[in-house]
Amino acid sequence: DEGVHLWDDAILGHRRLSILDLSAAGHQPMLSPDGQVGVVFNGAIYNFLLLRRELEKSGYEFKSSSDTEVLVHGYDAWGIDGLLQKIEGMFAVALWDSRQKKLFLFRDRLGVKPLMYVIKNGELAFASNARALRAAGFCEELNDQGVAEYFEFGFLTDDRSIYKNLKKVPAAGLLEWHGGNIRERKYWNLASKIKDQIDFNDAVEETEKLFLAAVEKRLQADVPIGALLSGGIDSSLVCWAVAKLDADVTAYTVGVPGDEWDESLAAAKTAKKIGIAHKILEMSGDTPLKLEELTAAFGEPFACASSLGLLDISRTVARDATVLLTGDGGDDIFLGYPEHLHFWAAEKLAEKTPAALNGLLQKTAAAMPKVGILKRANSFLNYSFGGLGAVTRVRDGLPVYQKHSLLGERLKNVRLYHREIPLTSGENLLADFLAYDRRTRFIGEYLPKVDGATMYHSLEARSPFLDTKLWEFAATLPFSLRMRNRTLKAVLREIARRHLGEEVALGKKKGFGVPVQRWLTGKWKNDFERMMQDSELDKAGWIKSKNVLNLFNEAKKQNWAPRQLWFILVFEAWLRSENR
Predict the structure, then answer these.
(1) What is the pLDDT of residue 378?
(2) Distance (Å, rounded) from C-alpha 313 to C-alpha 403?
(3) What is the predicted pLDDT for the residue at 488?
(4) What was the pLDDT predicted at 375?
(5) What angle do CA 466, 437, 484 make, to 5 degrees?
(6) What are the distances in angstroms from CA 126 to CA 130, 177, 296, 419, 522?
(7) Low-confidence residues of the chain, pLDDT below 50?
(8) pLDDT at 514
(9) Taking Cα atoms as reference points, which of 388, 462, 381 lies closest to residue 67?
(10) Hey, what's the torsion of the CAs at 86, 90, 96, 97, to 10 degrees?
(11) DSSP-derived 3-state class of residue 45
């Protein structure tokens, strides 16, 4: 569905993927009974039935069974602050109050759904996607800092955008626009108070209870629901919970015969054990280069390689389902990445070392050879005595471009704050890293990958592990409990052990990989060379394509390309699509 509504001072427009109340009653923009308040909304309010009952008791009448109507009446009943405190879910919302001549833009607590805006000539324009704002003529010139950040990471964080003057409403952010003035604030922060005395078993039981509630909330839909199932812990737990709740959901597994990433046999075994309907989606490991789809799915250049696989998965699942449950988020809050354990160990060393020795040990680390086992020791000492600043400096981002003279004149003097974070003691390294990681990789890569790839194929992804109440509880658990006995994601592994068995609980994280660095020098090499020989990025002064091709020729000898070449290729394809 789609719709537009006009007032004297505002226009709201919406394209709808209908999930709840597929009838015309769920149409957006949705208006208050007097037509003075209008809402456009992307996402899902998971506790809308509870809030609806509360509003009905207060005398509000509902004309739809959509969660959108709760936003309209909830604003009238509780005001903007009361509404934000009550709603749970993933959402990007624009609410126009014509009586007060106020626009409110607000985004869910973790930032699952995107929301961005531009202020130009006294007007404010907003959208879910940068491409929409460019098409409407609100932004055009690329942002040097945004381009530099993209080259650093292969994605953009919420601190930057690819266009000048384009800004992003942050996670848990509320923007109020009135009379040409703007006010922004955060309405929620993740708790940081640790419960030192909590027992491991109590933590496991409370996590399980909250997790089951999170899955149940995400099963509300008037369309078919599917769930991704790999051989790993997180997606297996989602499917276990679905089966326990006796929901009508089909699990889908990507099968790549003969590929080291293939987990279809393990997933089939898990599906049979828990008793859930299961389909294996067989895909060829011989994937053609689909840059057109990658650039179309994401409004800014986005070089996350696994998004290619997720686009393929979404296209296939969308034939049978419109909502897809995923296992995203478990690693981020329950500590499932190897670096979490490394940083925690470095933090412990820093705690035991007298502060007076920090400078000496920083110099010692800097003087150590950076090869073999000494390279790992060097990194560990750097993390312990340089903290977060040492972690962000070790990334192979902009220095790779600078070493090979890949950057053009427009980026000749570029600097990024990511590489200028002060070197300090690593006594709080893991906490510092988790906060930084949420602002960068989590919000800039992990969440957009899933949302962009699924929504491109009219599929709504929902992850129980991104439940706010679950995050609020998990954030209070000590690191020593979340990585009990030096085991990553110990709490979730224990739940898996109890309900799915040792094999799933002890399984190593695999993920779905797309080896773009190998394919770039193999099956995709002609595409890369053709595009670099007539590069739009070079013409615009962003790169030096001659030097890029020199590096690529060296990479072909190794059958392995630096990921920075992949970033350049994706950006080249994105820029060409924007210039059409």
Answers:
(1) 72
(2) 37
(3) 97
(4) 61
(5) 70
(6) 9, 12, 19, 31, 41
(7) none
(8) 75
(9) 462
(10) 0
(11) strand
